[in-house]
Amino acid sequence: MTPLYTATATATSGREGKVSTDDGAIDMPLTMPKSIGGPGGAGTNPEQLFAAGYAACFGSAAGLVARQMKLAVKPQLTAQVTCGKAEAGAFALSVELTGTFPEVAREQAEAIMKAAHEVCPYSQATRNNIPVKLSVA
């Protein structure tokens, strides 16, 4: 791999602390959701941050694929990241990516989603590691 960009973030005190980036673009408290044993309240959590990153990256991949297909779209991607218990008792993640492409037919939108899943760096990182479901709204 030829490095093009490196993002640096630091989390302090895990899910009950804060997260910040070296450039200050992100500087926010972390709060564990009630549904997984935390207090809830103001703040974000790793699943929300992962969902935001995956949605943005996949949206860019979908736009690239659409341009290669000579289609003019403005992709809207929603990522749902679920944290749950795995069979062995450890925590595990799953992702559902839903794409909205009002400019094209459903079959074209599905083709964009499938092709974007092949080129998106987040999809490559999660492939064969966690379940990722693709759907079109």
Name a few traits of the molecule:
137 residues; 26% strand; N-terminal domain of TfIIb; GMP Synthetase, Chain A, domain 3; alpha+beta; 3 helices; three-stranded antiparallel β-sheet; globular; 6 strands; three-stranded mixed β-sheet; 2 domains
Q: In angstroms, what separates the terminal alpha carbons?
A: 34 Å
The run of helices and strands is EEEHEEHHE
Largest sheet: 3 strands, antiparallel
Q: The CATH topology of the largest domain, please?
A: GMP Synthetase, Chain A, domain 3
Number of separate strands: 6
- As for the number of domains, it is 2
In short:
By secondary structure, the protein is an alpha+beta fold. The chain is 31% helix and 26% strand.
Task: Explain what this protein looks like in three dimensions.
The chain is α+β, with helices and mostly antiparallel strands and 137 residues long. It has helices spanning 46-68, 106-119, 121-126; strands spanning 9-12, 18-21, 27-29, 76-85, 91-100, 132-136. It is globular and about 45 Å long. The N and C termini lie far apart (34 Å). The mean pLDDT is 96.
Describe the protein's topology.
Layout: E1 9-12, E2 18-21, E3 27-29, H1 46-68, E4 76-85, E5 91-100, H2 106-119, H3 121-126, E6 132-136
Parallel strand pairs: 5-6
Antiparallel strand pairs: 1-2, 2-3, 4-5
Helix pairs in contact: 1-2
